[in-house]
Amino acid sequence: MNTNYKLGQEIHQLLLKNNLENPINWQQIDLWNDSKYVKQLEDKLTDFTSHLGLDLSNVSVSNTPNRMVKLFLEDLFWGLDYNNFPDITSDDNSFNYTNPLVSKNIQLKSTCEHHFVAISGYVTVAYIPNKKIIGLGKLNQIVSFFAHRPQIQERLTRQIGTVLQHLLETRDVAVAITARHNCINRCGVSDTGNEILSFDLSGKFLNDETLNSNFHMSLRA
Question: Helices 136-147 and 153-168 sit at what angle, rounded to 10 degrees?
Fold first, then answer.
């Protein structure tokens, strides 16, 4: 995936302006490429794991702190680093496509910021092009970037919708997320059948009854 740090910083400012940025100390994120800082994280997790009661002299868990740091920085939370923001280039809508474009079943893999357990599900994104269109795979990349953070579903839904409005220069954007939260499915109430559905609708998808109804129907198709 090609990345664009400059665009990422533009999106960062957009989210700050709309009170949609994640509650993160961004100066710490800048240290992820510092090997000494990564070693400090490993030492802290070693201390935590030891105090949790695990015997780190056992070969099975001796490398667990290192694995955990690698998991957090390289897999689960790489979306916190705007150096990884996808390079989203747009094309002119030269063929004047004016109907809704819907991308369904975009896979969602994220992490609950309250418990650091998995959120999994699917995202549906729709927009009505104005003057710009973007490659269809870019929708998946935007979802993936914001999913790879400690998240809550409501914020994630609005982040995707707000960023797409900005990049596409149109208000006519709709986002829906259906997800299972392991903090509900496995912890607390332990409701294994529970799913959470969230929406971010704007422009015609919010104000046009037919479009609104059709978008909701597409989620059940």
Answer: 140
Is 115 annotated in the active site? yes
pTM above 0.90, yes or no: yes
Determine whether 166 is an active site residue.
Answer: no
Q: Which one from 9, 107, 114, 187 is the annotated catalytic residue?
A: 114
Do 50 and 126 share a domain, yes or no? no
181 is catalytic: yes
Annotated active-site residue 141? The verdict is: no
**Do 159 and 180 fall into the same domain?**
yes
The per-residue pLDDT for 141 is 98
| Residue ranges of the chain with per-residue pLDDT less than 70 | 187-192
Active site residue 153: yes
Tokens of 119: 């959120």
141: helix, coil or strand? helix
- Residues 111 and 201 grouped into a single domain: yes
Q: List the domain range (segments joined by +) for residue 126.
A: 90-220
Q: Give the distance from CA 204 to its chain's centroid.
A: 24
Same domain, 145 and 211: yes
